[in-house]
């Protein structure tokens, strides 16, 4: 099995896809995630990118990284001048899951409060409050949970305001089992499908 396929299983990549299909990257974001920081790829993904465009894949390096891990400095060579990914249908794992990010816990994913990430956080807060409201806890407890999550949402909204300028963001950690439930919650609400135009293929 390819390493990227094995990793996708571990990090619940399919669940992430089921969540992300409900959201849309705003054009105003300018594909920020493809333009800043470093982007990491697995060896089998580098092979695919090399077949797609050997010249652009030359900008991928493995220097100083763990065996089997590669890096593209940003802006990513596969990002075209219109801010679209030229290899969208074959995009590597980290690209397909952003604003979710792998962490070292093994039990959760991080969620960056970028424009889409913030919308997911807001919906996650709604799901938490909804779940508690149906669980038979007291009205006082529901009010307390609502206030707590309102504050959480406001603090991530503050991160979003500075999103394009901050090198590090306070990211939300979402346990894998809660990811599954959030996905079901979003599907049950029959959210409109928003296209992820700013990262989609040219
Ligand atoms: S995932 Fe979308 S909204 Fe978030 S930084 Fe990337 S392009 Fe922007
Ligand atoms: S989504 Fe495409 S353009 Fe963006 S970092 Fe990944 S490969 Fe590069």
From TrEMBL:
It holds the Pfam family CxxCxxCC. This is YkgJ family cysteine cluster protein. InterPro entries: Puta_zinc/iron-chelating_dom. It comes from Methanolobus vulcani.
